[in-house]
Design a protein that fits this description.
Layout (H helix, E strand, L loop, with lengths): L6 E9 L8 H14 L3 E10 L10 H13 L4 E4 L5 H11 L2 E4 H12 L3 H16 L26 H35 L5 E6 L5 H9 L16 E6 L5 E6 L9 H6 L1 H8 L3 E7 L5 H14 L10 E6 L6 H13 L3 E3 L8 H11 L4 E9 L3 H9 L3 E6 L3 E9 H8 L2
Parallel strand pairs: 1-2, 1-3, 3-4, 5-7, 5-8, 8-9, 9-10
Antiparallel strand pairs: 6-7, 11-13, 12-13
Length: 422
C-alpha cells in the first residue's frame, strides 16, 4: 500500500509526430489523478515531447539527464512514466535516474491491488500482477544471472536464478487460475439462478470517474463508494430496484474503464465484466463536463468491443450524459436539448437528481418486450413448471386432457427462455 510520504514525479511522454487521441496536458492530468488514487504525493509533473522513440530508454539521453537533475532537486523517490515501458526501458531508466520507475500498466495494477475487496477481485489482480512481473524478471539486477549447482552427480550448468524465479511465478499463476476457475464457476451458477428470476439486468459502464456509482446510489439507495477519484469502484455491486412504472430490474455497478487499460487486466477482469455481457441493457455513463468526453467514450467503446460487445447494437445500449451540474447554464441547456432530440441519450446529474426520472423512463422503455401467445402442453407430472407459469400470471386459459394440461400462455421471449430452464 502506497504511503503519502512517497515523493513522486509524473511524466507523460508523447510523440510530436503522429496523431494522438488525447491532449498531452489532459493525459498528464489523468496520470496525476491515477497517482493520487494510490495516495502518492505528486511533487513534480511534466509533459515530455519526443521527436523520436529511443529503443533502450524511450526518452532521449539529453532529456534523461535534465529530468535526473530535477528529480534530485525535488528528492523524488518514485517516477511514474505515463506510457507502457518494456522491461529493458524500465531497467535502464531506473539505472539512469537511480529511483524506482513505474509505468502506466504497473501503476494501474497497483491501484487495482490496493482496492480489490472481494475474493474474486483479489485473485484477478494477483493473476494480472504475476503475469506482469513474469515479463519483467529481466529488470532485476545481476544476481538473477547466478546459476545454482545441478542436483545429483551428473554435471551441468544447473538452473539460473532467473529460471527458478520464472518457474515459481508460473506455479503461482497455475494455482491462482485453479482458484479463479472455482470462483468463476460460482458466479456462473449465480447468473444462471438470476436468469430464472424474471428481472432484467441493467449494467452501468463508463470511463472511470464518470459517475456510475453516484447514479447507482441515486437509483438504488445504496451506499457504494462514490468519490471524485479514479477507480473508486473495482468490484461489481448489484441491487434490485423498482422503476416508477412498476418494472423490477437488477442494477449492476461495474469497474470503470480507462484509456490504455493493461491487457492483463482486460483478461483478468473478464469474469467480472461478464455481468456486462449478460446484461439485458447497458447504460454507458459519460462525464459530459470533461473536456475529452468524446475521447473517453471512444476508449469505452474500444474495450466493449474487446469484450465482444458491439456498441452499435443500440437496442442494448443507452447513453447517459452525467454531471450536468458541472456545466455552465448555456452548456446545460445545449446538452439537455441535444439529448432530448437524440434517441437513446439522457442528460442528467446524479448529484442534483436532474434527469433521473428521464433515465428510469428510458430504461423502462428499452426493456419493453414484445409479447406473444403460445399454446403448450404439460404432462400431469410437470406440476412445478405449471406452477411457475401461474405464479407469473402468464396463463390465459387452461384445459385438461388425457395427456395433461393444454395452456394458452402470453409471454415475452425472455420469459419463454426462463420457462425452458425450469
Amino acid at each position: 500500500m502506497a504511503e503519502i510520504s512517497t515523493r513522486s514525479a509524473v511524466i507523460h511522454p508523447y510523440a510530436t509526430r503522429g496523431a494522438s487521441r488525447r491532449t498531452p496536458a489532459l493525459a498528464l492530468a489523468e496520470a496525476e489523478g491515477l497517482a493520487r488514487a494510490l495516495r502518492l504525493e505528486v511533487v513534480q509533473s511534466a509533459v515530455v515531447p519526443l521527436a523520436k522513440m529511443v529503443a533502450g530508454t524511450l526518452i532521449g539521453s539529453g532529456k534523461i539527464e535534465m529530468l535526473k537533475a530535477e528529480f534530485e532537486d525535488n528528492e523524488i523517490d518514485l517516477v511514474i512514466v505515463d506510457a507502457p515501458l518494456s522491461p529493458v526501458q524500465q531497467r535502464n531508466l531506473e539505472r539512469a535516474w537511480q529511483v524506482k520507475v513505474l509505468d502506466r500498466t504497473g501503476l494501474i495494477l497497483e491501484i487495482f491491488a490496493d482496492r480489490a475487496a472481494t475474493r474474486e477481485g483479489v485473485l484477478q489482480v494477483d493473476l494480472a500482477q504475476l503475469t506482469y512481473q513474469r515479463s519483467r524478471l529481466v529488470r532485476s539486477w545481476t544476481h538473477l544471472e547466478r546459476q545454482r549447482g545441478a542436483a545429483g552427480t551428473v554435471g551441468g550448468p544447473g538452473e539460473t536464478q532467473l529460471e527458478s524465479d520464472r518457474r515459481a511465478i508460473d506455479d503461482q499463476i497455475v494455482k491462482i487460475k485453479v482458484q479463479l476457475a472455482k470462483v468463476v464457476k460460482t458466479r456462473a451458477l449465480h447468473r444462471a439462478a438470476r436468469k430464472k428470476v424474471p428481472y432484467p439486468i441493467v449494467a452501468l459502464v463508463g470511463y472511470t470517474n464518470a459517475g456510475k456509482s453516484s447514479i447507482f446510489n441515486r437509483m438504488t439507495g445504496a451506499d457504494v463508494l462514490a468519490k471524485d477519484m479514479l477507480f473508486a469502484t473495482l468490484d461489481p455491486t448489484m441491487r434490485a430496484i423498482n422503476l416508477p412504472g412498476g418494472r423490477r430490474v437488477i442494477m449492476s455497478d461495474t469497474v470503470g474503464f480507462v484509456s490504455d487499460l493493461p491487457t492483463q487486466l482486460v483478461a483478468a477482469f473478464r469474469a467480472t465484466l461478464e455481468e456486462v455481457l449478460d446484461a439485458d441493457l447497458i447504460v454507458h455513463v459519460r462525464d459530459i463536463s470533461h473536456p475529452e468526453s468524446d475521447e473517453q467514450s471512444m476508449d469505452v467503446q474500444d474495450i466493449l468491443r474487446e469484450l465482444g460487445i458491439e456498441p452499435e447494437q443500440s437496442d442494448r445500449m443507452v447513453e447517459v450524459w452525467n454531471k450536468l451540474d458541472l456545466l455552465d447554464e448555456d452548456g446545460q441547456l445545449a446538452a439537455a436539448n441535444t439529448a432530448e432530440r437524440t434517441d437513446g441519450i439522457v442528460a442528467m446529474s446524479a448529484i442534483t437528481g436532474q434527469g433521473v426520472d428521464a433515465l428510469c423512463a428510458t430504461i423502462d422503455a428499452h426493456l419493453q418486450e414484445a409479447v406473444h401467445n403460445d399454446v403448450i402442453t404439460l404432462g400431469y407430472e410437470a406440476g412445478q413448471r405449471r406452477a411457475w407459469l401461474f405464479d407469473r400470471k402468464l396463463v390465459q386459459s387452461e384445459t385438461q386432457g388425457e395427456r395433461g394440461y393444454t395452456l394458452n400462455v402470453r409471454w415475452t421471449e425472455r420469459q419463454k427462455n426462463q420457462f425452458e430452464q425450469v
